[in-house]
Protein 1
Amino acid sequence: MSKIIQPNMKLQQFKILPISLLAIATLAQACNSNQKKDSADSTTMTAHNMGHGAATGDTTDNMKNGTPVNRFFEEASISGMVEVEMGKIGQKKASMPRIKEFAAMIEKDHTEANEELIKLATSKNFKLPVELPALKKEHLTDLNRATGKDFDNYYINMMVEDHISDIALFEGATKSPDAEVSAFAKKILPVLQKHYKQAREISLLFDQNKDRK
């Protein structure tokens, strides 16, 4: 009986051995693959962190040195043109008298600011944009399509959002090393803050009126 079992045991051992070696080899390959993946992930994360750090450094430098003059001129010009157009649209289409009055103030104040900006940019040989980017035109088109209370709501919310961006832009420009740019930004900033405050007040009033209905 033992002579018959012995060959089968050897055969089983012979069959098990390659399978065990294959399992070990597969495990080793998986470990090696994981090590490479971890290394690649680590490299990718390091590169991401380096890039993020570089961006953070740029932001810090911009905060210290103020908004770059060329970027300020371009963005302030586009923003100013948008505000004037929105002021005109608001006076025509708003259903709330207070929004019509607000829109008239927006057109007047931003027209004056735009004229000063043009003079300042011209004195520094910077050519301002003469038309709005496509995305801004789309926003104005969407606004023009709205009517009644929908228009009022859309309009005043856009004014709140736009003036948040405007204030951030001009706050950066107040730190500009260019004394004339800094002085202009400091002059216009309180006007933008007044616009934002009034837009928020109207927005809250609009929301309260909707809740009552």
Note: Residues 59 and 67 are 10 Å apart (CA to CA).
Protein 2
Amino acid sequence: MLAGKLFPKDKPLNSFQQWSILGSGLVGALAYTFSDSFWFSAVEGEVYAMSSFFTAIVFWAILRWERDAEQPQHWKWLLLIAYLMGLSIGVHLLNLLVIPAICFIFYFHKYKSTTLGIFLTALLSLLIMIVVM
């Protein structure tokens, strides 16, 4: 989904662009698959593998909401994000690090980017993280 944002939405993708998107997804998946930190977390009898799963699924839901934000039922994605965030905080607090991503994706989708706006969005995301903690 992130690689697809590099290309214009008004034109259909050519084969090079499609292969570029698939290749970037493959490289990202393989990098995560063969990373030491993922495997060390996966083989422990702790909560880190479930926490990593929740972080990934929440970030995917954020990107999915951003894609469907103009649709009339876009609030369902926000409800799913809130539900998954609540579940993930019950598992481990790592998923709180997705809150700034939520804030910035919302900001860049709804408003024109300014330095003050970026600073205020970062401050708001930090404040939300503090309140949740």
Note: The chain has a mean pLDDT of 87.
Protein 3
Amino acid sequence: MIDTHAHLEMCDAEPAVVLAEAAQAGVERVLTIGRGQAVELAERFDDVWAITGWHPHEAQEAVGRVEELRPLLAHPRVVALGECGLDFYYDNAPSGVQRDVFAEQIALANEVHKPLVVHTREADDVTFPLLEEARVPVVLHCFSSVARLDEALERGYACSFAGNITFPKGAELREAAARVPDHLLLAETDSPYLAPVPMRGRPNRPANVMHTLNCLAEVRGAEPDVLERLIELNARRLFGLP
């Protein structure tokens, strides 16, 4: 199994410990999010690959600095640009600044031919029009765009489901997950956030992606081991993993 989205440096234990626990649970690879630290972790651990970008919460800091991603994106252990996008729920940066930084990152991803890993919260009405400019694969991280599911599928966006699909209030997410075509399905933890049931309330770790996998298998009427192989194949194809 692969955890396609984690923040390893933010977990509540050393990366080596977190990764050993994940391997014991059957999670053989982890894609970690960040910039320099993420690349360093990918260099240290054979089972870690990096995704690098400016988070929408960091948009103010990123003004005039998107080009700093270019050398990181050229690193052989970096497989995508992200997570980038828009977050109008927390609104930690002005919406106009978020839009500009996101648009710059879309353009950069097009130039370097790297997939985009997208964060969108309370912002789909702006996110989706901006993504019309994307000429690379798009992953909707921690999928929540339920009202836009049909449009996302028509555009061929991969939908990555996190631990919140297991929450009691996650019925709409589970319904959406049941409808995603096999070739567009991914799973993640977003560690250390969104620990799934029955780990809810604790810091999340990549090993817990197995709980999300089991929930996905249940709502899709699939065997977990079959779905595990499917998600691994999707991740390999989308991110160019060996």
Note: Residues 2-239 form a domain with the TIM Barrel fold (CATH 3.20.20.140).
Protein 4
Amino acid sequence: MTTAGGERQPGAGDRDRVIVVMPAYNAALTVERTVRDIPPGVADEVILVDDASRDRTVDIARALGLTVIEHERNLGYGGNQKTCYRAALERGADIVIMLHPDYQYDSRAIPYIVGFVRLGICDLMLGSRIRTRREALEGGMPLLKYLMNRVLTLCMNVVLGQNLGDCHSGFRVYRREVLETIPVDER
């Protein structure tokens, strides 16, 4: 349901199809904890796209009841994301949540972040795993990855004129129309 101004408003019978996509590579040690923290009923489907992992990621994901898509060969992070987004859109997602299964993001926040998108306040929300240096490192983020993230985020903020905390976030929530607008296959 939309208002005269075009904003989406929740209403009787209004139900967005919410799909969580997880681009995975060797996530056997963390995928279960990540999935278990997703609040019940928040997603209609959870899809794990495995990028030719060499561990038990696929077996664990199947045991958790996730929809699993396997790449025969490693397509890299960008290729994995493309598969994730295509799969969610093909399955009729109105809201797509990309969540890395590395347990660096708080899955419990999904209903709140989705709420901003569902209400039409935002079309895209980015989560952050970096509230404090200590929390990021204690949460399992490798030191080199943390340092590179900080440098790249600083550069992106200067170029974009923004103040993002984690521009390389593995926790993103998109309204369907955003993903349909972005030429994902060209990137």
Note: The CA atoms of residues 18 and 43 lie 5 Å apart.
